[in-house]
């Protein structure tokens, strides 16, 4: 696989980035996060006045013969649940340039979703070994993340076990309550390590595979208890990821 640095390919990916807005407010897997939560703030910062929480400040102000100021009162605002995403990019010999472009698109989508939800992002490339492209907690704008993924070189073997273990290690550092691993691969394992034990301990595993070669990915997702979707064209990626990342 050649180095994917073609200017036209870069332009195509960057032009589609604005479409990759995947965050859904108040979403969470199986109710583990819920529809968001109320967070107390000073009333001068907006939100709805919390009368119960403001009673003491009102009483103090009344005792001093003055109206309470907004910065003494308490309001409540809705806080969307934060999400941590780890994108696993298969750069083994089974992935061609078009699939690497798809990986860059997925990286941009995950970067936007993590940023909008107040969450965190890790991107890990793997062949027989796993290597962080963007470590969890490291600031990386969507465009820079895309460039890093497009700059990856392909190698021969495929170890899903190494990739999934790396995802668990990255997400273990997350502050977010929802922790999602997105695996972009045809899931053709070429080493002798069973990846299912590593897959089954992840909080959430989502698999995206090329529609032209998704038999192994479907089998793996079924046995791992993961959600899975097939991708036929690059333009379908926003809808595919939106479907998988929905609660």
Automatic annotation (TrEMBL):
PROSITE patterns: VWFA (PS50234). Pfam families: VWA_2 (PF13519). Residues 84-244 form the VWFA domain. It comes from the Bacteria. This is VWA domain-containing protein. It comes from Nocardioides simplex.
């Amino acid at each position: 696989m050649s180095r994917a640095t073609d200017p036209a390919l870069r332009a195509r990916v960057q032009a589609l980035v604005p479409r990759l807005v995947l965050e859904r407010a108040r979403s969470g897997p199986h109710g583990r996060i819920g529809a968001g939560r109320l967070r107390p703030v000073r009333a001068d910062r907006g939100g709805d006045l919390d009368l119960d929480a403001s009673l003491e400040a009102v009483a103090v102000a009344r005792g001093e013969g003055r109206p309470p100021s907004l910065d003494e009162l308490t309001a409540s605002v809705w806080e969307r649940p934060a999400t941590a995403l780890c994108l696993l990019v298969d750069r083994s010999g089974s992935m061609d340039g078009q699939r690497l472009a798809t990986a860059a698109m997925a990286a941009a989508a995950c970067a936007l979703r993590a940023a909008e939800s107040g969450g965190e992002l890790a991107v890990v490339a793997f062949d027989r070994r796993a290597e962080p492209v963007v470590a969890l907690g490291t600031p990386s704008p969507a465009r820079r993340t895309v460039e890093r993924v497009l700059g990856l070189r392909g190698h021969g073997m495929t170890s899903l076990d190494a990739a999934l273990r790396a995802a668990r290690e990255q997400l273990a550092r997350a502050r977010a309550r929802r922790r999602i691993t997105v695996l972009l691969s045809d899931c053709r394992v070429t080493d002798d390590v069973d990846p299912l034990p590593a897959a089954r301990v992840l909080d959430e595993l989502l698999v995206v595979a090329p529609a032209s070669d998704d038999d192994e990915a479907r089998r793996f997702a079924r046995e791992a208890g993961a959600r899975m979707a097939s991708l036929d064209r690059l333009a379908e990626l926003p809808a595919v990821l939106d479907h998988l990342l929905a609660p």
